[in-house]
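yo, Vitamin K epoxide reductase family protein is done. seq:
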Amino acid sequence: MAVNTRLKVLSALVLAMALALPMSSCSYYVDPEGRPVGILGSGPPQADSREVNSYSYALESFRPETLSSWFLIASFLWPIPMLAIQLLRPRSMLSRVVWWLDPALAIGSGGYIISVASIFSRPALGAYCACAALLPYTAMWVHELVYRLRGLGGKDEPNYPLQPPAGGRLGVN
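structure:
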């Protein structure tokens, strides 16, 4: 397996694991009895109130009957079937179509994850990890595109072996 493919698989796994992390966080204040305290303007809260942070998870709000829940799950999991198609059938027409869909899906899912995470709250670790996982995935796609456009080697993807150079040490023969 080429280095590009390994990095894309790693990015897809990090994106899938980000599904279990908190997507957004929200802070509010409660009084000593646990009732929410309203804040007027941007002034400080009452002296006896304390700040409470609540976190929202993607799977926590999953409802099978709503389309937006399925879009959110698909935003995290789409690279796995796409990579499976590309690895199992590398020279097929389906694999080529899927490969050309990758950048649109990466940009779309990153935008969707951030927009869902930032509505009425602050994005949290899950949203940031998801977007961070999409960056190397997309960068490897761009690298493959440049490789294909230059026509290097006549193969579908660059194949850099993961082995040290001759002589056993890096940079010294």
